[in-house]
Write a structure and sequence with these properties.
Blueprint: H1 2-9, H2 22-31, H3 36-52, H4 56-62, H5 69-87, H6 91-116, H7 121-129
Helix pairs in contact: 3-5, 3-6, 5-6
Amino acid sequence: NFLCKDLQKTEQPQLELKEDNFVQKLYKKFFSGIPKTKLKATGYILLTHCVQQPQLEKFFRVFDMPDTFYSWFLVSELHVWMLSSRLMNEGEYGRQVRNAMVEALWQDCEQRAKSIGDLPASMRSKQILG
């Protein structure tokens, strides 16, 4: 108890923050915050969840949708929109993640359309439009 009282009485000198020098300002300008590559990767990961996690067959059955590329796109777009509206509350970082997610959605659509591309035109349009 005696030692604790003495410790409480002694005062530690406090450090004061001074204004950043030029190098510190430059560093903060270029290296502060979350890296853009990490935000972009987050958008791509979220898109993967939006596309793979929904139970498509259940959506198609409940909403009486045909099993087509267009139906898949509508369900995926719905999930992307729900996440996008939430991300917009996160400011600039949320906007960057949202943009990456939408970019990933269009890349995924292109890849899926190319995989349908080997079909004859009539079957391809039937798959895309229903």
